[in-house]
Amino acid sequence: PWAYNDLGGTFQVEVNHRLAKHEDPTAAAEQAIAALAQAVRLDPDYAIGYSNIALTYSNLARYAVESGKDPSESVRTCEEYAKKAEAIDAMNLVAAGSREFAYLMQILYEVESGIPTEASLHTFLASVDAISKKFPELNIPYQHKAMALSLLAAQRAQGRQDPEPTRAEALSAVLACQARAQGADANCAAIAALVW
Q1: Most exposed: 4, 34, 72, 142, by fewest CB within 10 Å?
Q2: Helices 47-66 & 72-88, crossing angle to 10 degrees?
Q3: How far apart are CA 43 and CA 187, in angstroms?
Q4: Residue 18 has pLDDT above 70, yes or no
């Protein structure tokens, strides 16, 4: 299965390249998924294959949001494959991170579309907490948490609700991010500027 996984990885590089250029990555993503699906057909216990399929769907969720489209289908499929990977390897960071990023894309879409985000935010925060417990040294989940909460605070302010409790939670996530990065992460600093 590793050969198909490597082939899928080659197509994932093309997906990332197209995303960076703001081009449609769908064809490359479909090729990646086809190769990775062959890997898990050959070895149904190949957690890496499932997690890389989840990663590809999280990138499709990103593309959907960047295109102004609802990423729900890609988010659900990402979640499905992430769960398969974690059923085999509970410490699979690619699966957990891909799912968490897909949830973040769902929140971003909802905020940009004026859709209430409470249900998606609850799912996302549970995912961030799970990753933080498994991998306490990582700062990226806290970056994502701060971003999502700052977006929610802005949405609440627009809806004439008090944004301060949510902004305080976002700030707490920024501080956790900075503590894990020992103050050396540019993303933490940029998110801090967004929150303050």
Answers
A1: 34
A2: 160
A3: 38
A4: yes
